[in-house]
Amino acid sequence: MQKMLSHLRRCVDEYRMIQAGDRIAVGVSGGKDSLVLLRTLAELRRFYPVPFEVVAITLDMGYDGADFSPIAKLCEEIGVEYIVKPTNIKEVVFDIRNEKNPCALCAKLRRGSLNDAAKEYGCNKVALGHHFDDAVETFMLSLFYEGRLSCFLPVTYLDRTDLYVIRPMLYMTEREVINFANRQQLPICKSGCPVDKETKREDIKNLIRSLEHDYHDLRQHIFGAMQRLPLNGWEPIDPRGRKKKGE
Prior knowledge:
The protein has a single domain (2-192), classed as HUPs (Rossmann fold, 3-Layer(aba) Sandwich), CATH 3.40.50.620. The protein has nine helices and six strands, in the order αβαβαβααβαββααα. The protein has helices at 2-14, 32-44, 69-78, 89-96, 103-120, 132-146, 174-183, 200-211, 218-228, and strands at residues 23-27, 53-60, 81-86, 125-127, 155-158, 163-166. Strand 2 (53-60), helix 3 (69-78) and strand 3 (81-86) form a beta-alpha-beta unit. Helix 6 (132-146) packs across helix 8 and helix 6 packs across helix 9 (218-228). The two termini are 23 Å apart.
């Protein structure tokens, strides 16, 4: 817990993610990433220098057999309000639209539904569980498939909804996330998505793994380049308020 909180707080501080009085909605899918974010952010709330609230929001996508009771129990144990928001996303993506490449549409609908739910329940920020490896893979996806140097931002302001989206787990590796989820016995729910693990992201993940046999620090070098270049919005800030040139 101490190691993960160190990563979390460093990211939060270097990108100025949390201010006094924030009410932060954590998008909880039931996967390891979102549950680790929920658990660590709820713990950070106990001792962070400024007060903030955490609310957990799960979108019910409409998959058969979805059971969110274990997540509800966890939220009760850690003192976090839990909200399940029904949606028709599965029906729209797979039944009505019958998308051959459903991920983009699904992601867009999930983002919109989560943001709407956050506003409905009085939140001014939405926290997402993207970690270190997600950032590297997204950068590579953009480079390979779009020909751009681009990635999601640590902090994004959405003027249409007047919400901030924050990603406090960017200094946690996927391996650390997996180990923490296992040690904490977090109630991970299997994805009901019929195309889970059959995406371009999975292809990029496998490519990076194969390259790491010869280039052992590949992920660290890519992530460091994103901060040192820096990509717009990726340059961290030191405790004295000055921008840093990466790590």
